[in-house]
Amino acid sequence: MALETIQIQEKLVESFDSVVFEFKQERDLFSFEVAADKITAVILFLKNDPTLRFHFLTDLCGIHYPDNDEEHQFAVVYHLHNWYENKRIKIKTYIKGENPEIKSISNIFLCSNWMERETYDFYGINFIGHPQLKRILNMDEMISFPMRKEFPMEDSGRTDKDDRFFGRTTDNY
How far is Cα 52 from Cα 33, in angstroms, rounded to an integer? Predict the structure, then answer.
């Protein structure tokens, strides 16, 4: 029997009650939200449950919502895949903007190690318990996080990005 989204939802609500919420079907992707302090428990449950078997972490990424209230300024999104049933789910959790941090799942899915480092590198989200949380793509000396909305789009001091060099000018020829 194929794994249905209603089964996933019922098992999660039965085990975690109001910690999981906002269930919805977005095209072919079943998604829901989880309270940030329970994310590791929910992911571990999804992986270890003999019916659900979400054994593969496809992706982990961050999102910055600067216009949201303080409690919801950052989100971490997890995509899990059940290979047996070819079922994918998306889990979203919101975290505070002042000091964005969440527990690492690198002990549950080893592949999350680099995904968490990349999310830290670009958004500054601290993954508590990560074995080596440091920059992965940007320079170690960088003090800002380039995917945050307050990061400037262009370096105003660069001359190679001058619009005149690309034919974009308001001058008449």
Answer: 17
pLDDT at residue number 163: 61
SS3 61: strand
User: SS3 for 133?
Assistant: coil
Which of 66-70, 84-88, 109-113, 154-158 is least confident?
A: 154-158
Is residue 112 included in any domain, yes or no?
A: yes
Alpha helices in 69-141 (DSSP H): 112-123
Please state, in angstroms and rounded to a whole number, the distance separating the CA atoms of residues 137 and 106. 19
**Domain for residue 62, yes or no?**
yes
Q: Please indicate, yes or no, if residue 123 is contained in any of the structural domains.
A: yes
CATH for 92:
3.30.460.80
Residue 35: exposure state from Cβ atoms within 10 A (0-12, 13-18, ≥19): middle
DSSP 153: S
Q: In whole angstroms, what separates CA 78 from the centre of its chain?
A: 5
